[in-house]
Write a structure and sequence with these properties.
133 residues; alpha+beta; 5-stranded antiparallel sheet; 33% strand; globular
Length: 133
């Protein structure tokens, strides 16, 4: 049986590895996951990531980020918004904010995968993928 929601699987793997304080986590690669992870790196939620070619679809290796000697987690929350049974679409002026702007929402728009701030700037709406704080 195939996976119904690959993005939810990736977010769950990252959330679990983050709670267990692992240095890295491997997930099957796709263009959407690659774009979401790129945004997480640009916004400072993860250290780095790399795409490993394995002759099939590839593996996305995500290096998690922790602060200080106590290894305090940088990602304190990661939640899927749009699910396969209930997709959530919004217009540009209806994009919600996470923790009054402290977190971010990742959207899939006609201009590509963007953060909520960039989508508001470009005045484009789209599908709400996930929120991070």
């Amino acid at each position: 049986m195939g996976m119904t929601d690959p993005l939810a699987d990736m977010l769950t793997r990252v959330r679990n590895a983050n709670k267990a304080k692992h240095e890295k986590v491997d997930v099957p690669a796709s263009n959407l996951k690659n774009n979401v992870v790129r945004i997480l790196k640009d916004e400072g939620y993860i250290k780095n990531y790399k795409l490993i070619k394995d002759g099939k679809q590839g593996i996305l290796r995500i290096y998690l980020k922790f602060e200080g000697e106590t290894k305090k987690q940088v990602i304190s929350g990661l939640r899927l918004i749009s699910k396969p049974g209930r997709r959530r679409y919004v217009k540009a002026d209806q994009i919600p904010s996470v923790l009054r702007g402290l977190g971010l929402i990742i959207l899939s728009t006609s201009k590509g995968v963007l953060t909520d701030k960039d989508a508001r700037k470009l005045k484009v709406g789209g599908e709400l993928l996930c929120s991070v704080w």
